[in-house]
Amino acid sequence: MSTQTLFKWRHFLPEIILLNVRWYCRYSLSYRDLEEMMQERGLEVDHSTINRWVLKYAPELDKRIRRHLKPTNDSWRVDETYIKVKDVWKYLYRAVDSEGNTLDFMLSAKRDGKAAARFFRKVLKGQHTQVPRVITVDKNAAYPVAVETLRGDEMIDKETQLRQSKYLNNVVEQDHRNIKRSVRPMMGFKSFNSARRTLSGIEAMNMIRKGQVNGVDRGDSVSQARFIESIFEIAA
After folding, report:
1. Which domains does the chain have, with CATH numbers?
2. Measuring CA to CA, which residue among 161, 91, 174, 171 is closest to residue 131?
3. Does the model's pTM come out above 0.90?
């Protein structure tokens, strides 16, 4: 979808929309926080409008950064964390490599072998990922089931090692904190779809923050902003 079509009929400039989406997905802010921050800049934007922007453009941000991601290595660290949706805990599957670079993520209503296998397939489809040499997980019994399923489908090598070690999985467990920090002000999601769409933007910004995209250094907020404007074809 072209940028002109993507922002058609919006009452605010694309730069303002992307600024709010980027800040919401990157920092621990609520929609009302952003509403007040825009007021300080002379802009009257209702928090519900910002919510609609995030749900619309966060998945698009995730989609557009994919082809710019640097390659990751073949040592996977996989774990799931809890996300509350309508007062019910759901499961956010996440995977990083041994250097802490995000491989992929997936929100799931269930925590079983089928869900884990579906997540592994999603990771394997990524342009920046490669077939794992080793997969490190915790003691969750669903992971061996999922790995055997993928071996049977010949999606991973039979020599791929499944390593169940909570200690060695500290890399991904530490990385959960960045996501949980952003989710905390949201006080839970109202629907599974809104959670899925919002989390895609949060995860995308987390990858950008970690320097996983070409041309953006880790922690360089200025180049992060310019990169996002460039992939949405907005002139600086």
Report:
1. 3-68+190-231 (no CATH), 75-178 (3.30.420.10)
2. 161
3. yes
